[in-house]
Amino acid sequence: MKAEIIGVGTELLLGQIANTNAQYLSGELAEIGVNVYFHTVVGDNPSRLADAIKQAEKRADLLIFTGGLGPTKDDLTKEIIAGHLQREMETDNDAWEKIQDYFKRTGRYMTANNEKQARVIIGAKVLPNEHGMAPGMFIKEGPCFYMLLPGPPHEMKPMFRTYGRQAIIDQLETVDCIESRVLRFFNIGEAEIAERLSDIIDAQTNPTVAPLAGDGEVTIRLTARSDSKDKAVAMLNDIEKQIQEKAGEHFYGYNDTSLMAELLKVLENRELTIAAAESLTGGLFQSEMTSVVGVSTMLLGGIVCYSNEAKVKLCDVKPETLEKYGAVSEQCAIELAENVRMSLNADIGISFTGAAGPDSLEGHPAGTVWIGMSFKDRESKAILAKMAGTRNGNRRRSVKMGCYYLLKELKELDKK
Amino acid sequence: MKAEIIGVGTELLLGQIANTNAQYLSGELAEIGVNVYFHTVVGDNPSRLADAIKQAEKRADLLIFTGGLGPTKDDLTKEIIAGHLQREMETDNDAWEKIQDYFKRTGRYMTANNEKQARVIIGAKVLPNEHGMAPGMFIKEGPCFYMLLPGPPHEMKPMFRTYGRQAIIDQLETVDCIESRVLRFFNIGEAEIAERLSDIIDAQTNPTVAPLAGDGEVTIRLTARSDSKDKAVAMLNDIEKQIQEKAGEHFYGYNDTSLMAELLKVLENRELTIAAAESLTGGLFQSEMTSVVGVSTMLLGGIVCYSNEAKVKLCDVKPETLEKYGAVSEQCAIELAENVRMSLNADIGISFTGAAGPDSLEGHPAGTVWIGMSFKDRESKAILAKMAGTRNGNRRRSVKMGCYYLLKELKELDKK
């Protein structure tokens, strides 16, 4: 089965939002072995949308539409598709009841245009919307399948995961079993990893080996096809072994993990607590940690000391340290890490202090960052990282560097 | 001029990344009056890329390609376009020197495949890459223009802004002057604002009026065309006045501002300093504030008190308060805001404490959040916000709510 994902909405063509729906659906379809050869984005324009449908029918047998099911008059995806397929529309009772009920529960004001959202194409399998009002649809007509999904990602994703995905799987004549695995690397460039792996990349057919750089990391996606899951997994294991031999020292995890998630795993396994003192990162390290459910046994908290005043008042950094060495210094990083650790009696203290940019700070160029680490049972240390990104790129990279070096430190502890 | 943006890269079709390049370019093109009617994404596949080029030539006269200029063998955009246009390639000396120089400066290891990046199509205007290695290109051939840009956004955006945009403007026969303005609203739903503005939206032709919901906000984009800038601006002023009359109490700012940016403006104008104590937001409020350049005169810092221990140890919350009222309480929010303000001698203290989710906390359902505010010269207060999003949706919305209510509070101060 070949799919094309058609995003409908002038807001996409005006650049107001990115087409993250196509990204999500592509990942989901890859997992169930449906090839996606094209994404298309078209505006809220009847004739251009109709043209896009005809074009897609020539090169795909599954057309997935996102957007244009909303309450306003420029939402016209289902109307155009109904016309194209020469079908009528009707009100879906379940959806209509749900809409009325929502307004009753929240006490919000229901407007007349909300009823339009409950209209569906006759003969469509209706996909319930558990996070919004407009239901989705799945239609078979001639050689093609048509799936209509809402535009807001927080409605579209659960609808696809719960109902859409299975509707597609039911139509697949499963031939191959497809297994994918993403390997994640840090502190190595894309060209260097591609050269180290050039023999493997040149020889690839099945499994495929696809490197990709982004956000200061390199990932390599491996995809194997076979007639059984076991065989596909064995193929992945074999090629991964070859890759790990050539670049394993930069590898840190699989699939959609992150350096932060890997750090949290290690902290959880060893029952370690952490506290942080953040200057240039301004709370980003702790905020990213807090975004994970169940972090409360590990992250005690910490301080944000964006100003030097806060470094002294909240974290007892000695004024002499700031005078003599400055805030962008090994000494300041170590005092911050030690003091924040002790103030919360944590096992680990981490600190970030440096010049985020765009300007230099205390004579240090933007991107000069000291990361301090303090431990209960061993000497403190600080690491100097130099980066050349934007202000927020440097802040994000600092957080990743902190996770990376702390992970290294904890793993070295293991070896001893 | 009509443009089509063609993203090239199998990583897009596998869902490894979102096509944020198309979003950025669409916004830039809208500003200079170039209509974008389609986005296309195609993989690293010679024949499908060639098909996409032929298709785009039928419906656009400016084809902008992103991606596929990199060092690896699956990067083939310029090779396919050269073939399609029947042109040869040559090494661009400036680009080649820059690549060699980069490796000399950073001491990194240069691989053989880096030379491929300096190859350009003969006759193309070369667009220098100031943040990476592969140069871009701009080509006129027959009735069409072709622009080739690199895939990594941090290379593509500055290249387009510095060189690509002007190359397009030079080709425009300017007829109309186009002015756009985005109005931003908070705490009102899309359907409600659409109903309030239904007369205006129904009657729109020029200026156009396009509402869009996302991330808990509604924006309305106004676009006017006229033969002079002054006339277009007057048309925007006129329609904005009508909209403000109907929904102005929810309006908070223009274009790409944010609630945080608006708050910072007010703090800066009044020379006020702020400190924060964050439980469920875990540093997100301060991190978002720190992402803005020049915030150091306003944000002194604060604490992250994700654990109750940290609330007591770092922010002097009375253990009795936690015992009697719990962490998710008005009393705790007010103590946090007052104590963090006083510990740094700031003008304003703000605090966030509540249940981020997915689980309830102390019997309060996920999404129950208290926001505390403390001021030097008036009584403290706390506001209860109820939300129904995911854990991180609730954390982000809490930060927005904090900005929104603090802005309201500071503006009310004005009136007195």
UniProtKB/TrEMBL annotation, chains A, B:
Stated family: Belongs to the CinA family.
Species, as recorded: Siminovitchia fortis
Source lineage: Bacteria, Bacillati, Bacillota, Bacilli, Bacillales
PANTHER family the record matches: NICOTINAMIDE-NUCLEOTIDE AMIDOHYDROLASE PNCC (PTHR13939), NMN AMIDOHYDROLASE-LIKE PROTEIN YFAY (PTHR13939:SF0)
NCBIfam families according to UniProt: cinA_nterm (TIGR00200), molyb_syn (TIGR00177), PncC_domain (TIGR00199), PRK00549.1 (NF001813)
CDD domains: cinA
InterPro entries: CinA (IPR050101), CinA-like_C (IPR036653), CinA_C (IPR008136), CinA_KH (IPR041424), Competence-induced_CinA (IPR008135), MoaB/Mog-like_dom_sf (IPR036425), MoaB/Mog_dom (IPR001453)
Domain MoaB/Mog: 4-170
The protein's name: Putative competence-damage inducible protein
A Pfam entry, by short name: CinA
